[in-house]
Every structure is written in C-alpha cells, then in structure tokens.
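Section 4.2 – Deliverable D4.2 (structural model, holo form)

The reporting period included a commitment to supply a predicted holo structure for the target in complex with pyridoxal-5'-phosphate. Inputs used:
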Amino acid sequence: MFQELLTKLSAAQVQMVAVSKTNPPDRILALYELGQRAFGENRVQEMLDKYEALPKDIEWHQIGHLQTNKVRFIAPFVHLIHAVDSLRLLQEIDRQAAKNDRIIDCLLQFYIAAEETKFGFVMEEATDMLQSEAFKSITHVRICGVMGMASFTEDEEKVKLEFRSLKAIFDNLKRQYFADQTAFKEISMGMSGDWEMAVSEGSTMVRIGSLIFGSRV
Ligand SMILES: *Cc1c(COP(=O)(O)O)cnc(C)c1O
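Output (structure tokens):
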C-alpha cells in the first residue's frame, strides 16, 4: 500500500506525511528504510520519545493541536508545525525558535468542517492577526501555508466543498499577504479516508496514518 500510494502522490507532486502516532518506532523504521522521512505526530511526549529513539534525519511534523506550554520541547528539532491556531501560539513558537537560533516553519490551521471539535482560525481572525503589529514583529517563524481537516462523513460532496474552501483561503492569503513569499506554498489537507479528494482539490501535502500503518489500537 505504501509504495503504491507514494507513486500516486509523487505523480501528483504531493508530499506524504506518514502519520505515525500510536505506532512503535520499529514500524516507523520500516518506512524509513523505504525512504520515507516525513512523519507526523499529534502528541508532544510521543514525538519526543520517537525523536530520541530514531534517526536524526527524520522530519518531524507536529500535526495535532499544540499547547503553548509544550512548544519548548519540540522547538529544537520540529520540521513543520501544521496546527497553528492562535497568535499566542505563534508568539511562543517565535520565542522558542529564537532561543534555539532557528526559524520554525508553520502552517495556519483553518476551521473548515462543520464539527464542533475541530480547531482552527476562521478567515476574519486570521486576517486580523496577519495585519497586527504583534504578527509583524515575529522574526523566527516562517508561515508556509495552511492546514485543515474536513468533516468525518461519507458525504463526499460536503468534503469536497470543505477542501475547496481551504484552497480558496490559501489563494486569498497568498494574494493578499504572501505574494512575494515563495515559502508560502503548502496546503496540508487529506487523510486516509479523503486524500484522493484532497489531491484533486489542490492539496500539496497529505497526512496519512491508518492507510499505511493499519488501523490504530
Ligand atoms: C491522525 C491524524 C491524521 C491521520 O489520520 P488517518 O485517518 O489515520 O490517515 C491526519 N491528520 C491529523 C491532524 C491527525 O490527527
């Protein structure tokens, strides 16, 4: 499944983040040996343990909701933080990145699903932030694009419209705020159940867990 998926995704020039949460290090290593380097985790402690145990050229993606008080633990090595959903979090990432003398790449998470439980900005909150002085004074974060999660539903039309709305948000932000920033190019959308739809709607990065690792216990 892994190779087949990778072939399809690379034909579409879409990057795969292998979502390894709950899977032990040896299963990560098996994919590592097939060439996979980008792995996604949603819990800080679990990412730390795996970072310690596994090869240092793995690119660790923080894909889940991140608490401000945990940023400092992953700041030394995290490759991309997908789920930035507040200015306060961004400011803490900036602070910790500066301490570690690095620039941390981040995506802005948008709320696109009709579900109470999903985190993320709505457009107005994001534009308020992007126009603020506080945002302009951030120096050690690079905003590389957007991330979103579609509703968990069988209704494909609904999922399609949600992905389409994230693509529109991306295009809008790119035009208004990031036109001259080549790094602003990622749309992280699509998981095991909806990655094909996400790719056809413009995803540049899919986060795939159960499809390649098997279902989580
Ligand atoms: C778990 C998770 C995924 C992967 O889910 P699968 O359905 O197993 O592919 C993707 N994104 C986020 C934010 C997740 O928490």
